[in-house]
Amino acid sequence: MSLAPLAHLVKFHSDRFIQATGSSGPSASMWTYLWDIVDEGYDNVFRHLKDNGLDSVSLATAYHAGKFLAPHNPKRKVVFPEDGTVYLSPKSSLYGRIRPLVNSLVKNGHSLESVKKAADRLGMQTRSWVVCCHNTPLGVKYPEIVCRNVFGDPLHQNLCPCNDDVRKYLCALVADIDSHGVERIELEALQFQGYAHGYHHEREGIALTPAARLLLGLCFCPSCMRRSKSHRFDLLLLKSYVRKALDGYFEDPIAGAQTLADMGGLPSELVEPFFEWRTAEVTSLLGEIAASTRSANVRQLLHVDPLARKLVSVDAAASARTTGGILALGYVKDGEALRDPLATLQQQVGSAEITLGFQVGLPESGGKKEFLERMSVAREMGIKSFNFYNYGFVPLGNLQWIKEAVGG
Question: What is the 8-class DSSP label of residue 98?
């Protein structure tokens, strides 16, 4: 789709962001789960955030399963979230045949709406954190909407971005969230994913190289086969290669590991046009989602590492043109290691806003010293908007790192 009609939305969203933050100083938001807010108390959580320099909460509004350690949760220390649910009361008129699964907390009176009211009372902004194409329960319920590998096996955790029902569902969900007046909608997993998942009791009897794992997760579902034709790209040629390569790998994993040792060994004449086509599909979906909103900023989550973006078919420059900015995960420990990929990213997106996401927990963050070094590099390079992961996972004392870094 043409992105020209989105120009007025980009300007509107950018103006609204400036009004919301009230200054050109650093903006800081915390990725947060509703169960932590409910268990600890709304006001307690928001005061912890505000007292440590956070001016916004990024609430998980559509989220997946997990097994999470919650060190400062007063009611439980291990949390198993309900898989693939939303944390709002859906407006049924917006949706087609795919409808969201509603979390039980919503049925007990807790939701995006209640969080926003609490944030408003303390003068904080509310952002919505939405996991898009990763939803196992919907994939199991509607197997025709999931990615399928070259053998036709469904990858139930991966909703295919090319599927029309998936696209309609995501546009409806984002429009629904937008109607709650949130300041920003953050889109995680708006991309093609892959074979690896972390599913319960995953087992493999052979070692998979990165290239083999990539091929095993490529989607050849009917929606992909149909939409690829308009791109003048023959997906059947790639499918034939992938099937032959993986059959050979499974027959002789030792020899296969040499043939598929790394990404560089894949045939570029097949793989490069394929990635180009998939990236165009993800960009067009983002455009449709952005056009479905009226008031909120939309930001696509992507990795600061360019190879990671390529493998999931996300174009940072196109994403920034579509929405006015990006939300980049700077998940590196060494601050200096952030400098080169961030500079490349800034060059690609031009004047569009970059929000950087950083780890605050242990051991992922490295520690306070490493965290402050990353923040120092980012601010030196002109970054003024940050997200931090994750309120429920980190010791409360780690929030003081944020206060020190943003001058709260």
Answer: -
Sign of CA dihedral 16, 19, 23, 27: negative
Give pLDDT tens digits for 73-84: 999 999 999 999
Asked if 36 and 399 touch (Cβ cutoff 8 Å), the reply is: no
356-370 residue pLDDT tens: 999 999 999 999 999
Rg of the chain in Å (alpha carbons) = 21
Q: How many Å apart are CA 95 and CA 147, to the nearest integer?
A: 21
Is residue 299 within a helix (H) or strand (E), and if so which, with residue range?
strand 297-303
Cis peptide before 363 (omega within 30 of 0): yes
Sort residue 367 into left (φ over 0), alpha (ψ -120 to 50) or beta: left
In angstroms, the CA 229 to CA 252 distance is 34
Please give the structure tokens belonging to residue 363: 């051991």
CA distance 119 to 218: 41
Instruction: Give whole-number Cα distances, 147 to 46, 104, 139, 167, 227, in Å.
Output: 39, 28, 9, 13, 14
- Residue 72 sits at the vertex; the CA angle it makes with 69 and 78, to the nearest 5 degrees, is 25
Q: Which residue bears the tokens 């790192």?
A: 401
Based on the number of CB atoms within 10 Å of its own CB, is 58 exposed (0-12), middle (13-18) or buried (19 or more)? buried
- For 4-194+286-406, give the CATH class: alpha beta
Using the 8-state DSSP alphabet, how is residue 232 labeled?
Answer: T
**Residue 134 φ then ψ, to 5°:** -115, 100
Q: How many residues does the chain have?
A: 408
44-85: pLDDT as tens digits? 999 999 999 999 999 999 999 999 999 999 999 999 999 999
What residues have CB less than 8 Å from 147, skipping those under 6 apart? Answer: 154, 155, 158, 159, 160, 192, 193, 217, 219, 221, 224
